[in-house]
């Protein structure tokens, strides 16, 4: 497996697994916590694994947890996915910057998003199945949302032939200047 820092966002890591293929198909190791921890420079422990089955053009995000922030290892198992994260760590040189990753069908890579980032994604035209491992449990009272419409973020979603499916909570989320951030 090759683990490399994302372009322009060195704390975000891209995991590219080695696949073993034969006449039956392919098999690959998704990640090793020890290798990911070494690449990140700190211990990473996952406590829960989630799957999101998304309809075409469904938007989820930009979500984060202000207390017990969550590190997320994201992998698109089926479909196409436009994945975004925003650094919300005030002390970081990349504070307020956005990283984008496009999972194409058959992409075996995973994206490590460290604690202190907001995260969201848009499913492609055939929907998407997303698997993510989390480093802390979800707590409703600490859940926060950042508005992806914020002009300060400069996020442009891929063109969709129909309106995106978004919750009121996500659509009415505060802008970066108004949201809770990390020290």
What does this 3D model show about the protein?
Strand 1 (2-6) and strand 2 (9-16) form a beta hairpin. With 183 residues, the protein is mostly beta strands. It is globular and about 55 Å long. The protein has one domain: Jelly Rolls, CATH 2.60.120. The chain is built from two helices and eleven strands; from the N terminus they run ββββαβββββββα. The longest helix is centred in the N-terminal third of the chain and has 8 residues, at 33-40. The strands form two sheets. Strands 1, 2, 5, 6, 7, 8, 9, 10 and 11 form a nine-stranded antiparallel β-sheet that branches. Helix content is 7%, strand content 45%.
Question: How many individual helices?
Answer: 2
H and E order: EEEEHEEEEEEEH
Report the top-level CATH class: Mainly Beta
Roughly what percent helix? under 10%
Low-confidence segments: none
Number of domains: 1
Main sheet summary = 9 strands, antiparallel
In short:
The protein has 183 residues and is mainly β.
Name the features.
2 helices; 9-stranded antiparallel beta sheet; mainly beta; Jelly Rolls; 11 strands; 183 residues
Provide the fold topology:
Blueprint: E1 2-6, E2 9-16, E3 19-22, E4 25-28, H1 33-40, E5 48-54, E6 59-65, E7 72-87, E8 98-103, E9 110-113, E10 117-134, E11 143-145, H2 168-171
Antiparallel strand pairs: 1-2, 2-9, 3-4, 5-10, 6-10, 6-11, 7-8, 7-9, 7-10
């Amino acid at each position: 497996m090759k683990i490399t820092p994302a372009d322009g966002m060195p704390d975000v890591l891209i995991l590219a697994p080695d696949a073993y293929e034969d006449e039956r198909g392919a098999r690959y190791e998704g990640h090793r916590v020890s290798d990911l921890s070494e690449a990140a420079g700190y211990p990473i422990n996952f406590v829960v694994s989630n799957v999101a089955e998304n309809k075409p053009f469904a938007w989820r995000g930009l979500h984060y947890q202000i207390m017990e922030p969550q590190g997320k290892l994201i992998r698109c198992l089926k479909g196409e996915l436009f994945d975004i994260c925003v650094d919300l760590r005030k002390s970081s040189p990349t504070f307020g910057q956005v990283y984008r990753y496009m999972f194409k069908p058959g992409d075996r890579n995973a994206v490590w998003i460290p604690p202190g980032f907001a995260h969201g994604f848009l499913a492609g035209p055939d929907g998407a199945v997303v698997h993510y491992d989390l480093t802390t449990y979800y707590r409703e009272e600490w859940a926060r949302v950042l508005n992806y419409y914020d002009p300060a973020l400069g996020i442009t979603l891929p063109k969709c032939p129909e309106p995106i499916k978004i919750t009121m909570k996500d659509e009415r989320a505060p802008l970066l200047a108004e949201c809770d951030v990390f020290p």
